[in-house]
Structure to design on (1017 residues):
């Protein structure tokens, strides 16, 4: 009896460690797409109507290969629709390029005719006559169905443990089973997408943990999060099914900016204050945080705007001392729009979100323009703003003072952080086991401070594992960004990934007193509908974008 | 162009990974390096929440009297039926003020954390209410109460121990405080700054010059170095001069030998003996008695300073030989010294906890007497004992005389800058087979023979009639 209880308390953690370890192992095993050496690249025939070239035929791609009907070609395709010397494939600087050699019937890359030499990326489909070719890497196509089941298993084991310890009733266990099925089905359904599946796995795991810990803190939160997860996964699938041409979103960039400003204005005027931040809208019984949605709006706006104006922003036309600055007409709208959002957030006293927006702004401008100048001036601007805010707002001052020495404010402003440090510090490698921690001691443990509780009950290994999951998520998101063929999509993917990563760093850094605490949710893990659905939207978008390579 | 953006993003992604790595290292630092100190922080309520899953074990005196216990359902209220009498030994256990005394030393035993693996695990994970283990002390409740009441008019300490085993039968300090939480916490701000220092256990943590009780040790060292010393005589003129400095005596004792010099506590004799021994032998002799070795007990102890340099100077050496100057000891140690003379030179390790029992009464651990060190040969010990019996029978210590019983003792009056000398009396009885060794110290009590010796006599009588 005792041993069974004990085993159940740790079963979920152990499953989590093993799963994360295995995922990381498999992930590292796979070769990096962008840095594949030419020698290890293979060209594969994915479709072929030629009897001599069955689908699955492979060719090594060394320095250069000519494809054509002539038997002397490196890759000889005995097809009447193929010219004698049809197309040239060559590698340069680790990348692979294709050049049509003036063929009669043309070469198509992803359905589009090839006119100038183009880079061939993994996943691209090259159609020559009746053969469809594509790059192949040794591990592509390897699927991990067992891995896809892991988030559901983690959820079920955690739920069983809670049920066995009489923390949740049988009904809640059933609810968890529903989510477990949903997550597993989604993960398996995404398997063919390769890249996308690795993107969804961390999300599914975090969602599973979120549900377990929220039921563990208070079944009321658990029940609501149950609905949020269903809605979130629904949004995720909706994007997979209906989003056909995301590029058109860039036509509406200013509308998104307008939406962002309006949402924030409405919050300032009509908002309700929850735990110090006036960042909530009440719709009947429903609490709703518009700034979560604004994250998406702003990223779409930034991606569109920067895509359009990146050249001008990069080169700069106005001289300021030694620096070249872009003209006001280009820089102005960007700065104004962002400044307005930040200002509104300051009025809402939602520091975390303001910090997040600022970081995203700087990151995306940097990515689009590749100019460190923007990065540095952004940081300068940031510290300038921070200093001004420190002078003006007492609540900012308090945050900074608490950050510097929380022990001095142990019973007032520093209480939360100190309890969080106690929770983590007492965890050891394996933690106290599910159900053995003290969530009641940490205020806001279900939202911003869920990380210390997870750390307390799953230990240092669990906490590091969760960090690894977030890194994996962001890393994978950046990989999608690197692969997307157009720069608008690339900036979108980059923005979403950077946002998730920075949000995680800000809140985990905040609760561990590594940086001043600013309250925002921990993506997917914290309780909250606005946050969960928004983040699901971003992941859905990323998975969708991973198809456009 | 696109490659440029890719490069930037690629760089950015490594930057993010670096941030995650830093955060991970910081987490490891919090858990592994700072973990213990965070867990033990007084602002951390978690240890108390774990504790409250356990019914803290009781503490019992030698005959089973309850000295500390916690009632089921009142986990936060530890009760100490004898209040101040045991405060210096048992200490207190308070959420706000922390723990002291045996409550601190045996914390994990009282909480059952050192019980069977299974119990430990159950407490760790809070699966069911548990009872901690009980402590059974060597303290004799009657003796301890008597010591406390005899001391109560004074500031001082009394120690009673069994010289053959090292069991401490009484360890009293005055003034004391009430460890019952209601009083303790409400009075804390007053108690803490009280100039009489009730929180200080004078028996173990006080440091005083031993005064003439030191002459027991000087006599032992002299007999050890000069086997014929007992037959030699010395003419006491009431004072001696050491390098031009005059050391006064209480009177002109005339012709004395070792026994009579100890009986009348002749300063001239022992100062001269100290000088004859010389700095080197005096120092190594003190080392044999344990100077320089850390004392160990289940309670915090003041360590006895061993200032070897001061013996190099003849004045310092002469003063040290009569227990003045730089020599400082605590009362527990002087009881151990007296006991070791009675026990043929064998100094036993003192101890307070006799047994640890599980909630069912099963004995988990029981103490075994341990020889701490042989401080002097049995022959010398016997000679010194002889002289000490003389002190009580016809010397300065007659106030400790008990008809029909040989009591070996030594008085002391330790000069100090704070006012009247501290009164000392150390003794053991019966002299030939001692079952009790006593040390009484009264701060600024004046002559040891007048204040301290009567208290020692009462304690010896009570201890021996109890058959302890």
């Amino acid at each position: 009896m005792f041993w069974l209880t004990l085993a159940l308390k740790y079963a979920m953690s152990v499953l989590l460690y093993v799963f994360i370890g295995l995922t990381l192992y498999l992930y590292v095993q796979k070769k990096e797409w962008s840095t594949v050496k030419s020698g290890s690249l293979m060209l594969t025939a994915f479709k072929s109507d030629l009897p001599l070239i069955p689908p699955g035929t492979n060719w090594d791609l060394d320095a250069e290969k000519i494809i054509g009907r002539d038997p002397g070609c490196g890759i000889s395709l005995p097809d009447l629709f193929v010219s004698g010397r049809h197309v040239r494939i060559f590698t340069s600087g680790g990348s692979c390029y294709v050049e049509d050699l003036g063929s009669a019937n043309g070469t198509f890359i992803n359905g589009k005719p090839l006119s100038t030499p183009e880079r061939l990326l993994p996943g691209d489909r090259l159609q020559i006559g009746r053969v469809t070719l594509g790059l192949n890497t040794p591990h592509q196509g390897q699927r991990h169905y067992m891995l896809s089941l892991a988030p559901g298993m983690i959820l079920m084991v955690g739920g069983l443990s809670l049920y066995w310890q009489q923390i949740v009733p049988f009904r809640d266990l059933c609810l968890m089973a529903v989510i477990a099925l949903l997550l597993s089905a989604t993960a398996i359904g995404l398997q063919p997408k390769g890249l996308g599946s690795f993107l969804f796995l961390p999300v599914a795991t975090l969602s599973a943990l979120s549900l377990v810990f929220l039921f563990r803190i208070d079944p009321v939160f658990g029940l609501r999060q149950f609905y949020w997860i269903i809605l979130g996964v629904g949004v995720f699938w909706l994007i997979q099914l209906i989003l056909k041409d995301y590029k058109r979103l860039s036509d509406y960039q200013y509308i998104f900016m307008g939406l962002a400003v309006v949402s924030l204005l409405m919050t300032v005027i009509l908002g309700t204050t929850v735990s110090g931040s006036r960042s909530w809208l009440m719709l009947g019984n429903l609490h709703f945080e518009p700034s979560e949605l604004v994250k998406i709006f702003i990223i779409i706006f930034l991606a569109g705007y920067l895509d359009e104006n990146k050249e001008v922003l990069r080169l700069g036309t106005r001289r300021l001392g030694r620096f070249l600055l872009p003209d006001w007409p280009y820089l102005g709208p960007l700065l104004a729009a962002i400044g307005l959002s930040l200002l509104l957030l300051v009025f809402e006293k939602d520091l975390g979100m303001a910090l997040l927006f600022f970081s995203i702004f700087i990151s995306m401008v940097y990515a689009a323009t590749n100019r460190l100048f923007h990065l540095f001036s952004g940081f300068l601007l940031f510290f300038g703003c921070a200093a001004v805010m420190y002078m003006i707002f007492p609540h900012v001052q308090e945050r900074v003072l608490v950050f510097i020495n929380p022990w001095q404010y142990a019973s007032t402003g520093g209480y939360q952080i100190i309890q969080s440090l106690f929770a983590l510090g007492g965890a050891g490698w394996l933690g106290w086991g599910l159900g053995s921690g003290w969530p009641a001691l940490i205020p806001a443990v279900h939202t911003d401070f869920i990380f210390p509780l997870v750390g307390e009950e799953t230990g240092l290994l669990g906490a590091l594992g969760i960090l690894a999951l977030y890194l994996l998520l962001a890393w994978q998101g950046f990989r999608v960004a690197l692969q997307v063929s157009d720069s608008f999509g690339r900036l979108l993917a980059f923005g979403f990934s950077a946002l998730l990563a920075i949000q995680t760093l800000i809140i985990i850094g905040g609760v561990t007193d590594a940086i001043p605490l600013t309250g925002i949710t921990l993506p997917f893990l914290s309780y909250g509908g606005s946050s969960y659905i928004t983040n699901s939207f971003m992941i859905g978008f990323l998975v969708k974008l991973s198809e456009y390579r | 162009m696109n490659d440029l953006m890719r490069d930037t993003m690629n760089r950015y992604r490594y930057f993010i990974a670096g941030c995650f790595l830093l955060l991970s290292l910081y987490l490891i630092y919090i858990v592994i390096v700072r973990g213990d100190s965070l867990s033990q922080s007084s602002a951390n309520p978690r240890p108390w929440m774990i504790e409250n899953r356990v019914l803290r074990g009781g503490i019992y005196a030698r005959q089973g009297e309850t000295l500390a216990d916690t009632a089921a359902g009142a986990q936060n209220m530890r009760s100490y039926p004898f209040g101040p009498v045991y405060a210096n030994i048992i200490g207190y256990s308070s959420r706000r003020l922390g723990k002291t005394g045996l409550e601190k030393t045996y914390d994990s035993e009282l909480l059952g954390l050192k019980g069977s693996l299974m119990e430990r695990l159950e407490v760790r994970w809070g699966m069911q209410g548990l009872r901690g283990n009980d402590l059974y002390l060597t303290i004799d409740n009657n003796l301890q109460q008597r010591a406390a009441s005899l001391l109560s008019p004074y500031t001082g300490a009394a120690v009673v121990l069994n010289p053959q085993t090292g069991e401490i039968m009484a360890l009293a300090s005055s003034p004391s405080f009430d460890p019952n939480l209601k009083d303790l916490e409400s009075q804390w701000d007053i108690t803490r700054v009280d100039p009489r220092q009730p929180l200080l256990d004078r028996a173990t943590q006080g440091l005083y010059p031993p005064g003439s009780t030191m002459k027991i040790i000087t006599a032992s060292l002299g007999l050890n170095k000069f086997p014929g010393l007992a037959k030699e005589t010395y003419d006491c003129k009431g004072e001696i001069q050491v390098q031009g400095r005059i050391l006064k005596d209480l009177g002109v004792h005339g012709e004395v030998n070792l026994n009579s010099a100890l009986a009348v506590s002749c300063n001239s004799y022992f100062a001269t003996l100290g000088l004859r021994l010389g700095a080197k032998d005096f120092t190594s002799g003190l080392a044999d008695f344990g100077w320089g070795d850390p004392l160990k007990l289940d309670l915090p102890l003041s360590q006895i300073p061993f200032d070897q340099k001061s013996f190099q100077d003849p004045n310092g050496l002469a003063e040290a030989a009569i227990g003045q100057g730089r020599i400082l000891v605590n009362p527990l140690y002087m009881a151990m010294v007296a006991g070791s003379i009675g026990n043929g030179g064998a100094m036993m390790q003192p101890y307070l906890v006799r047994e640890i029992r599980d909630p069912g009464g099963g004995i988990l651990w029981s103490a075994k007497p341990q020889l701490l060190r042989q401080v002097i040969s049995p022959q010398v010990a016997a000679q010194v004992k002889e002289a000490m019996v003389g002190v009580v029978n016809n010397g300065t210590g007659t106030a400790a005389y008990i008809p029909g019983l040989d009591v070996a003792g030594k008085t002391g009056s330790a000069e100090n800058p704070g006012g009247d000398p501290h009164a000392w009396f150390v003794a053991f009885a019966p002299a030939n087979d001692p079952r009790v060794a006593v040390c009484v110290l009264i701060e600024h009590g004046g002559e040891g023979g007048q204040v301290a010796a009567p208290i020692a006599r009462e304690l010896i009588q009570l201890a021996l009639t109890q058959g302890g």
The interface with chain A takes residues 2-10, 12-13, 16-17, 19-20, 23-24, 26-28, 30-32, 34-35, 37-39, 41, 43-46, 49, 118, 121-122, 125-127 of chain B (CB under 8 Å). Residues 2-33 of chain B form the longest helix (32 residues). The first strand of chain B starts at residue 54 and ends at 55. Residues 154 and 442 of chain B are 6 Å apart (CA to CA).
